[in-house]
Design a protein that fits this description.
heterodimer, A: 154 residues, alpha/beta, Mannitol-specific EII, Chain A, 6 helices, B: 456 residues, Rossmann fold, 3 domains, two-stranded antiparallel sheet, flat
Chain lengths: 154, 456
Amino acid sequence: MNIKDLLSEGRILLDLTADAKEDVWKALANKMYEDGIVADVEAYLRDVTEREKQGTTGVGFGVAIPHAKSEAVKAAGLAMARTTQGIDVASLDGTKADIFFLIAAPKDADKVYLQALSKLARLLMHENFRESLRNAKSPRDVLGVIEKQEEQMS
Amino acid sequence: MAKIVAVTACPTGIAHTYMAAESLKVGAEKLGHEIKVETMGSAGSENKLTDEDIAQADIVIIAADTNVNTERFAGKPIYMTSTGIAIKDGVAVINEALKKATVTMEKEVAKIEEMKAQRSAQRSGVYKHLMTGVSYIIPVVVAGGLCIALSFAFGIHAAEQEGSLAAALMRIGGGAAFALMVPVLAGYIAYSIADRPGLTPGLIGGMLANQIGAGFLGGILAGFIAGYITLGLKKSIKLPKSLEGLMPVLVLPLLSSLATGLLMIYVIGTPVKGIMDWLTVSLNNMSTANAAILGLILGAMMAVDMGGPVNKAAYAFAVGLLGSNTFEPMAAVMAAGMTPPLGIALATFIAKNKFTKEEREAGKAAAILGVSFITEGAIPFAAADPLRVIPSIIAGSAVTGALSMFFRCTLRAPHGGFFVLPIPNAVGNLGFYIIAIIAGTLVTAALVSALKPRKQ
C-alpha cells in the first residue's frame, strides 16, 4: 500500500488559513466528500472527534494525523493540509501543528487503515521529509515528495 | 559498529509504535550501527526478531509504554525506554543504550525474578490452578517444617515431654501447620478455579482428604472437584433478584460443600487413600538402588525446563509427600534444583575464556540464584546455548538427585536453598547432602566447560 495512492492533488490543501483543528478537519472532510470517499461529513467528523477523545493524534514535530474508521466512509482515503500558522493540537511534544493528514476508512477496513497510519507515522519521522513537505510549492510537489520518500524506505 | 535489536510497543499500537521504530532506525543509520526493529502493534508483531537476530545482537532496546515480555532476551544487555523518548531523539537513545545496557549481577537477578513472575502469570488451566494451590502451601510448610526441625534440636524424643518447649514447637509445626497443608492446598486450587466461593468447599474437601488419609493426592482431587462443582453451580443456579444475596452465603457454600464432601467420603477418599498408602510405603521401603533411580528422575526433571511445568511437577510431588512424613524426595528435589545455576556459575569461573564478560557477570547472578534454590537462574545460559547447556545441567541435577536419595538425605522445608542448611535438623544427613550438591555442581560445571567453544 502506498500513501501516495491514497491521496490526490485535489485533496491537498496548501496554505490553508484556520484557527482551530476542527476547521482543518472540516475543510479536508469536505474535499473527501467531493471525491466520493466520505458519504456524510457530519457523521464522519463525529467519529474523528470521538477518536481524538481517546488520545491526541498530534504526534509531534508539527504534525497531526487525525483519523477514524466510520460508517460514513465509502472507501479508504487520505487528505492533507498545510496551514499558514501552527494550530494547537495538544501534541505530545508541545509543538503546534501545521501539517495535517486526515485518514478516512470504512468500518471494516482494518488493514488498510492500520497500514496507512503506520506508514505515515514512519514517513514523518524523517526530518528531510517534513522539511520537503513544508517547502513544497504545489500539490503536485507534495505527491512527488511522498513518492520519493516511500521509494527510499521500501 | 554494533548490532542492535529493538522492540517498540504502545497501548494503542499504532502511531507511536511505528514512529519510535523509525526514529531508532534513523538514529542507528546516522551512527553507523546495524539495527532491526520489531513493532508490536495492534496488527500483531511485524518485522519479528528471529532467534538468530537476537543471538547476534550486542544489545536489546525496548521502547515501550506497555509491558513487553523479555524472556526471549534472557542474558542479553537490555536498555528500556519509552516510545516518547525514542521518538524525540533516536540518536540519543541509541548512544545511551550502548553505554548503559550492561549485564550486572543485580540487574540479572532482578530480570530473572521478573521473568519468573511473567512465567507464572502466563500459566493457564489445570496447571495454573495446581500451582496456585502449591504456592499457598509453601509458606505453611516452611513454617511448619522448620518448627518441627527446631523441636528435634532438643533431642529426638524431647517433644514427648509434655509442657516442654520442644512439645510446643512440635504442636505448632506438626499439629497445626502440617494439618493445614492439605486443606489449604485444596482450598486454593478451588479458589483459583471458582474464585472466592471455591474456597469453602475446597478447604472442607481438603480437610476430609486429611481425615480419610488420602494425603496430598486426595487434596488435589478435592480442590479440583470443589472448584469445578462451584463453578458449575454458579453458572446454573438462577435465583430471583431479591434472593441473589443468598447465593454466596448460603446456597453456594452449602451445595458445593455437600457435593464435594459426599464425593470425597463415598467415592474418592478410599481408593486415593490406597494409592497414597502404597506410595508412602513403597517410598519408605525402597531399596537403595530404587531410591537412587527415583532421585535421578526427579533430579533430571528439575533441570529439564528450569522452573517450567516438568520442574514444578517434580517439586509439587515432593512438597505433597512432606504431608505424609516422607522427606527424602524433597531433599533430592531442592538439591537438584540448585545445581543448574550453581554449576554454570562455577563454569564461568573456571573456564573464563569460554564466556563473554557479560556472561561472567551473569554467572555471579546465577550463583546467588542457585544458593537460593531458584533454578530459573540457569535460563539465560540455556537460552543462549540450549544444546550444550541443557544436557549439562540435566546430568548434574540427576547426579545430585540420585546421590541425595542414595544417602537417604531428608529435608523438612520445601524451600530456602542453602539458607535452611544451618537450621538444626532441617536437613537429615547434612554432610552427605552437601556432598550431593557439590557433586552435581561439579558435573554440570565440567560438562559446560568441556562442551562450550572458546570465545575469541
